Amino acid sequence: MKKIISGTITGALSIVVLTWTMVVLVWASDAMGRIGHEEADVLDGVAALAASGSSGEFSDILADDIADDDADDVRTRLSRRGMSGLELTDEQEEKIETLRSAYTREMIQLRADSRLARVELRELMDEISPDIDRVKELAAAASAAQGAVFERIALFRAEFKNVLTAEQQENLRESFRDRRDGRRDSGMRWRRDGRESRNRR
User: Fold this and answer.
1) For 50-61, b where at least 16 C-beta lie within 10 A, e where not — what string?
2) CA 135 to CA 14: how far, in whole Å?
3) Between residues 185 and 156, which one has the greater pLDDT?
4) 93 occurs within a structural domain
5) How many domains does the chain contain in total?
6) CA geometry: angle at 103 spanning 70 and 172, to 5°?
């Protein structure tokens, strides 16, 4: 009887682990697929980390993924957009440049670690009979790697905000809010024009 109960519990745990693993894989696949289509929005999101005012806005930004190849563009995007009009002091500009430089370097490695962990997990799940213990190990590694990415993003946001005054933070928040609303309006016009074009055919 004990063997039957033990076997039942083991089987149930295996199903839970496999289900959770598949959820991780689906999430990873979706995030990777967004990179090509949302590249501009994602890069703007890096700067928006410093401007997000509510936990909800911050959570939305954390949901985005950032391509390793685009890490070098973070400095340029932050400088050209969003940052204009803040009237930064020389000291602030120097501090922000230091933060951005450290962020881009570290994120390249963290993203690489996260993607490698997901690839290894995906390869294991492609096997006919994946080893449960190995699945647990790789799933934990993938989760930890992604957690490290989120932690670094949160740290960047906090450090960046600490450089700015309250007024500068509000100006930056307004800048990104206006640009986000503009992109939303443009998308709605594009979809509406597309429907009208199809209806005229």
Assistant:
1) bbbeeeebbeeb
2) 10
3) 156
4) yes
5) 1
6) 85
Instruction: Return the exposure string of 138-163: e unless at least 16 CB atoms fall within 10 Å of the residue's CB, then b.
Output: bbebbbebbebbeebbeebbebbbeb
Domain assignment present for 201: no
Residue scoring higher pLDDT (101 or 193) = 101
Give the residue numbers spanning the domain of 37: 20-182
The C-alpha atoms of residue 96 and residue 90 are separated, in whole angstroms, by 10
Three-class DSSP category at 66: coil
DSSP string, 51-63: H--SHHHHHHHHT
* Whole-model pTM over 0.70: no
pLDDT in tens, 68-100: 444 444 444 554 556 667 888 999 989 999 998
Crossing angle of helices 166-200 and 39-51, in 10° steps, is 150
Q: How far apart are CA 58 and CA 176, in angstroms?
A: 13
